[in-house]
Design the sequence.
């Protein structure tokens, strides 16, 4: 009986354990099912969100791609705006610097004027002006003989002022010297060597001033002069007749203005008394000054040479070429920014034009032809033009200056003579 009871207890315990395991298994399965359903539902929700996000991203990408051209355009506009702002800043800065310089110059001039005023007000101070205005009794026939020629069909009376010219212009009162040259022919050196001659004041290139004045003459001045000569046309032009001589002197004034003399200076003398402490003197004597300039631009229009002779009747021309056209062509192509490459043949034609200009168009009384291939090697060739211009033999050069001779084509070597020209060197007339 006891063993049966023990067996029954054991069996009951086993059944109880099995029943507990079944309960636990059922609970676990139910929990797993619930969790699985929740996970699946969350997964579906996330997939739905992801799908919507992909669609939204695609739309955004499409919109961004459509905005790319606009963004590129805005970037380009921004770069341009920055460039313009920088350029405007630089211009404004240059303007400010120029204004500062002008103000400083104005203050300096104001001080100079005040000093001059004080000199004038002090009667004990002596003022001297060692230069006379251009002479009224001039005769430059030695410099420009053809302009004084009264023969028929010549440049008759070019140097006589028109009796109706109320402005009082005298076209031959000033002697001019024009150096016409081809590029890279030692013309800068020649310019400043001529400038060392007594009474000569040369200047460099002037941006084709005479060519521009010639264009102005053909486009405006000539028509105005012709209209002023016809009384019924004066209602649409000048009220009175325009003097041709006055036009000549206006052109000459342009040349003189861009090549002015040195201004007057106030100086102190070491041994001067108080009453003579300060004096006013002009540095240059203008009465017989020969004013000139260099140009490498000369119009091929035949009327241009006539215009120069008419507007500047008392002018001499030095025509400078370079016969070594191979070297000259190479130098021009290397140093000048042409839109084309010059050839030796092109340069030969250029030299032919200038030879004809010197010998046939202007003639020996007005023009002297130089070849830099010769005078740069033999300075005596250059002294021939010194004689032709009317200077004494003491003005002859013994050496050359050196301008635009460095490797870059523009650096200078010897820019002044170590010794002054002979004191007996002077202009005596051709």
Sequence:
């Amino acid at each position: 009986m006891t063993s049966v009871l023990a067996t029954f207890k054991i069996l009951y315990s086993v059944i109880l354990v099995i029943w507990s395991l079944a309960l636990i298994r059922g609970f676990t399965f139910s929990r797993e099912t619930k969790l699985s359903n929740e996970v699946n539902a969350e997964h579906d929700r996330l997939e739905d969100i992801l799908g919507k996000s992909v669609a939204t991203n695609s739309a955004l990408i499409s919109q961004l791609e459509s905005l790319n051209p606009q963004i590129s355009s805005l970037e380009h506009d921004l770069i341009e705006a920055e460039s313009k702002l920088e350029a405007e800043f630089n211009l404004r800065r240059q303007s400010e610097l120029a204004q500062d310089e002008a103000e400083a110059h104005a203050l300096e001039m104001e001080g100079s004027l005040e000093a001059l005023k004080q000199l004038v007000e002090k009667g004990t101070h002596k003022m001297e002006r060692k230069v006379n205005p251009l002479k009224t009794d001039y005769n430059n026939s030695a410099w420009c003989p053809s302009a004084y020629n009264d023969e028929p069909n010549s440049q008759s009376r070019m140097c006589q002022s028109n009796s109706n010219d109320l402005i009082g212009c005298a076209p031959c009162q000033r002697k001019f010297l024009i150096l016409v040259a081809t590029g890279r022919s030692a013309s800068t050196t020649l310019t400043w060597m001529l400038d060392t001659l007594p009474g000569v004041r040369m200047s460099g290139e002037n941006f084709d001033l005479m060519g521009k004045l010639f264009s102005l003459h053909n486009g405006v001045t000539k028509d105005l002069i012709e209209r002023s000569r016809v009384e019924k046309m004066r209602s649409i032009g000048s009220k009175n007749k325009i003097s041709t001589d006055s036009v000549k002197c206006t052109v000459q004034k342009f040349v003189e203005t861009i090549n002015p003399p040195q201004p007057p200076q106030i100086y102190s003398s070491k041994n001067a008394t108080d009453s003579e402490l300060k004096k006013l003197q002009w540095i240059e004597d203008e009465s017989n000054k020969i004013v000139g300039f260099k140009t490498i631009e000369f119009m091929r229009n035949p009327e241009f040479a006539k215009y120069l002779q008419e507007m500047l009747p008392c002018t001499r021309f030095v025509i400078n070429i370079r016969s070594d056209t191979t070297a000259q062509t190479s130098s021009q192509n290397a140093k000048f920014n042409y839109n084309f490459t010059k050839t030796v043949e092109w340069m030969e034609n250029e030299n032919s034009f200038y030879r004809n200009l010197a010998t046939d168009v202007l003639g020996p009384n007005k023009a002297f032809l130089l070849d830099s291939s010769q005078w740069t090697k033999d300075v005596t060739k250059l002294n021939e033009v010194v004689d032709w211009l009317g200077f004494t033999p003491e003005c002859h050069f013994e050496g050359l200056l050196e301008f635009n001779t460095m490797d870059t084509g523009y650096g200078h070597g010897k820019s002044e003579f170590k010794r002054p020209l002979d004191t007996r060197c002077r202009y005596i007339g051709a």
User: Anything to note?
Assistant: The CA atoms of residues 160 and 245 lie 9 Å apart. Residues 2-121 form the longest helix (120 residues). Residues 68-121 form one domain. The chain has nine helices and seven strands.
